Amino acid sequence: MKDAKIFLPELIFNGKKLIGKDVEKSTRKLGDLKGIFEDEVTFRLMDPEQVVYYVSSTFPVEEGTPGGLFMGITYLMPGKVGNEYFMTKGHFHSNIDRAEFYWGVEGEGMLIFMNEKREVWAERMYPGSLHYIPGGVAHRVANVGNDMLIFAASWPSDAGHNYETIAKYGFARRLKEIDGKPKLI
Ligand code: PAN
Ligand code: ZN
């Protein structure tokens, strides 16, 4: 029998960066996050062009394909709007029962969960922390440190993103810096 072929991987995850074929980058600036922070007066005084986070992702199959997986690395800058930490928009999955893994790569974060009953809880993120986000649970990450927060994620290719519910109703609690510490209030 002939030897089977051995290939080099098309992608490298070197611990911090996703490198290789078809890595797609999307950027969220402060101006794209209108309405998510409570202190709108301070928000309006800030530069809408300031980058809050970007995501490098690989989509090996078409979006919506059942049974596939996607992976992305999020780079979330340190900062606050008033006393509320810089955070991702947050979303439920459009196919609401789809789960996801997040894991901490660098920096200090807080992963905020909210179920459909609007119950909120959070987990600390740090290098090596692993987080299972069950189906039916909205998720958002805040950078609670002074340096960039890097975390990776893998989610089903038929999960989809429902940003509308969070844009309209928000999370039931906000993560704020109170006396120098993160608190969900
Ligand atoms: C992640 C997020 C990423 C950015 O890849 O999409 O961290 O956060 P927002 O999508 O809430 O802006 C994920 O949860 N994918 O499903
Ligand atoms: Zn998700």
UniProtKB/TrEMBL annotation:
Organism annotation: Bacteroides stercoris
Under InterPro entries, the record lists:
G6P_isomerase_prok, RmlC-like_jellyroll, RmlC_Cupin_sf
Protein's pathway: Carbohydrate degradation; glycolysis; D-glyceraldehyde 3-phosphate and glycerone phosphate from D-glucose: step 2/4
GO MF terms on file?
glucose-6-phosphate isomerase activity
Q: Which domain of life is it from?
A: Bacteria
One example of a Gene Ontology biological process annotation: gluconeogenesis
Kindly give the CDD domains that the UniProt entry links to this protein. cupin_PGI
Tell me what this protein is called.
glucose-6-phosphate isomerase
